[in-house]
Write a structure and sequence with these properties.
about 300 residues; alpha/beta; 9-stranded mixed β-sheet
Length: about 300
């Protein structure tokens, strides 16, 4: 059995399309674990309606504890030997479950990674996101090309034996996905686009707050430490740490926060203007190196002008 875990929180405008795409799954031995994380809109009603009409849907309602807690609860409630995840504002192809499952059996894989497409405003769909690499790959290749997202993968349940998503934080997948990849003995990458990720500017991960920047930098540090301990190339993680240090410095006021001080130390250690950084981050780093007071003043002014 495959258990598909869907954490739900105030997504009534998107949830029916997501759940309809699950109803259409071609794989017969599946359950859909809907974790309503204390929604205050009609999301809980929609979830209950689907469960009432289709016994593959199981609903668990909790107080609001956040995305990680909802996913962790879903893992505990799941009965399947295989796990998959779907965000409630996204949707999937009818063979979302069947294609990676059959491939996993054929190749004796513990983890299957597939491609996704991004859906932007007015429903425009970008080309499939993911690497052209396919077949059995090693863990470092999977980390480099398989993405950090939780939802473009089929996991053998045993991979989660001692691994859970960090609660009380966002960007939990950045802090976790690499651990699951290294826990797998055999990893398969597929060229199939099976998942449609809806890009929402109002989603939790797109909120430009100091706390989000803090969580993002922390997750990047944890990921870097883990990958370094596994002997991975610095190019796999170092540019991301550099970039997220600048994000935190730009969104938070200077203070005694140890993580902020660590971000300062990272930014000070960046050699020159690395070509791996995106154009905006290169400009930020240049200003940081020239005059830190000017950097903070400019960032403060930009935050004040940003739409609320």
């Amino acid at each position: 059995m495959i258990s598909v875990i869907v954490p739900i929180y105030n997504v009534e405008a998107y949830l029916p399309k997501c759940l309809d795409s699950l109803v259409a799954q071609t794989f017969p031995d599946v359950e859909f674990i809907l974790i309503d994380d204390g929604s205050t809109d009609r999301s809980a009603e929609f979830a209950a309606a689907y469960a009432g009409a289709d016994d593959r849907f199981l609903v668990h309602r909790t107080a609001n504890h956040g995305l990680s807690a909802a996913r962790n609860l879903g893992i505990e409630k799941a009965r399947g030997d295989w796990l998959m995840f779907v965000d409630p504002d996204d949707y999937v192809t009818p063979d979302f479950c069947e294609t990676p499952y059959q491939a996993a059996l054929r190749e004796e894989a513990d983890l299957v990674i597939f491609k996704s497409s991004v859906v932007r405003g007015r429903g425009s769909v970008a080309r499939g996101k993911g690497s052209a690499i396919s077949g059995i790959v090693d863990a470092e290749t999977a980390v480099r090309y398989g993405g950090v997202a939780v939802w473009n993968k089929l996991y053998r349940r045993e991979l989660f034996g001692a691994i859970r998503y960090p609660e009380g934080r966002v960007f939990e997948d950045i802090a976790t996905t690499h651990k699951l990849i290294f826990a797998a003995e055999r990893i398969l990458m597929l060229p199939d686009v099976l998942y449609y990720h809806v890009h929402r500017k109002d989603s939790i991960s797109h909120i430009h707050s100091a706390q989000n920047a803090r969580d993002l930098f922390l997750a990047s540090l944890e990921r870097a430490d883990y990958l370094k301990s596994r002997g991975c190339a610095e190019t796999l993680y170092q540019p991301e740490v550099w970039s997220k240090s600048l994000t935190l410095l730009a969104r938070a006021e200077p203070g005694g926060d140890p993580l902020f001080r660590q971000a300062e130390a990272v930014a000070d250690s960046i050699p020159g203007i690395p070509p791996q950084l995106k154009r905006k981050k290169k400009l930020m780093l240049l200003v940081w190196k020239l005059d830190k007071r000017l950097f903070h003043l400019a960032c403060r002014l930009l935050r004040q002008k940003a739409p609320k």
